[in-house]
Amino acid sequence: MSEDILLVESSEWLGHQTAVAIYKIDEDYEQLVALGEVINVQSNGLVQIAFSKYPHEEANSLDFNEIRAKLMIKPGVRA
């Protein structure tokens, strides 16, 4: 969608205002790249996640559209 919003498929645990952690899968490890929060669950079931990139220089240069197949979303914590 926009630079700071991910649109993902629904999951039972993804509800309004759920905190999430977004990881990049790189071979055998997961690298935390962003923290976010569910801001909308659309009527078609898609979920909008607003995120702020992790304060790590490499993560800030990532283009999530290019690596979307390597992203994993897990429950997170509020900062």
Q: What would you say this structure looks like, in words?
A:
This protein has 79 residues and is mainly beta. 5% of the residues lie in helices and 47% in strands. It is built from one helix and five strands, in the order E-E-E-E-H-E. The protein has one helix spanning 57-60, and strands at 5-8, 19-26, 29-41, 47-53, 71-75. A five-stranded antiparallel β-sheet has the order 1-4-3-2-5, with no helix packed on it. A hairpin with a 5-residue loop joins strand 3 (29-41) and strand 4. The protein is globular and about 35 Å long. 14% of the residues are buried. The model has no long low-confidence stretch (mean pLDDT 84).
Task: Report a brief summary of the structure.
Helix content is 5%, strand content 47%. It has one helix at residues 57-60; strands spanning 5-8, 19-26, 29-41, 47-53, 71-75. The protein has a five-stranded antiparallel sheet with strand order 1-4-3-2-5, with no helix packed on it.
